[in-house]
Structures are given as structure tokens and as C-alpha cells.
Amino acid sequence: MWAALIPILGSLFGKIIDKAVPDPNQAAKLKAEALSHLLAMDQSELSSAIGITQAEGKGLKANWRPITMLVFVFVFVFVFIFANNYIIAPYMRLFTGHSVALALAPDM
Q1: pLDDT digits (tens, 9 = 90+) for 68-107
Q2: Which class for 9: exposed (0-12), middle (13-18), buried (19 or more C-beta within 10 A)?
């Protein structure tokens, strides 16, 4: 997030420092310090994001996400087949005379 704001904030701080400090050498020194602080903030945010990503990769979340997705897919398929066979197909048969009933696996 900071990477996009660093040029804008640097320019803003530069203008403020130019108006507040009459000595050009002192102003240049303050501008360099302000820019270095902005870059340090960006580096700390980046390093914390890397740490969070590494912790997630090592934790249980990395293992549970695929399992959770498989469970949701199987539940969705079961609900779709159930809704088709007992709600949609009877209405199709009533109005058109034809219907498509999906076969439910015996284990389900």
C-alpha cells in the first residue's frame, strides 16, 4: 500500500519542508530523512506481510482449505441433485411431459 503513496507523500513533505525551512541544505537533509522514514515504513509492512504468508503456509489453514473446498463441492452437488430430482423434475414433467432425473450415487 505504501509503495503507491511514497511519491505523493514525498512530494507533499518536500513542499512543506521547502516552505518551513529557509536554509536549502537543511531542507535537503530533512527531505532525505522524511523519504528514508517512508521507505522504512514500506519495508516493515512488506516484511510483516511476508511473515504472515509464511505462517499461514506452515499452519493448519493450508491443509484445511482444500478439504473444506471438497466438502463444499460435494454438498453443492448433493443439494443440486436433490433439488433437481424432487423439485425441478416433477414440475418439468407436469408442464412438458419430460423430465431429467439425475442418478444419486448409492453412497450418498
Answers
A1: 888 899 899 889 988 988 899 998 888 888 888 888 777 7
A2: middle
